[in-house]
Amino acid sequence: MAPTQEPYRNRIELLQGTLDLLILQTLQWGPQHGHGIGQAIRARSDELLKVETGSLYPALHRLVKRGWLKPEWGVSEANQRAKYYRLTTAGKAQLSREQDRWSQLVDAIGRIMNPAPAGKE
What we know:
alpha+beta
């Protein structure tokens, strides 16, 4: 492995669509600005998940367009003007659907990765 690739060795790539779920999940705890959303995902994943700016902001714009988030201007902890995002009622309903689908996906992958012994199904 080349030395420049070493910092990325333990990095986990997100499945397509998972970022939306992570954003919605993060915002269930209250409104947050984009940078704060990225920091929360990183902190809650014990630094395993780092959402790049080039992925985060297009996802936020997509979720706003779908009506799942509402943006509002506010002032950040650093006393800077920032756009804060909050879940809408539709966003909360989508989060619930996504949580159900995520549970099904985790269960299905678990069955593949740890199959039941023959005759135990």
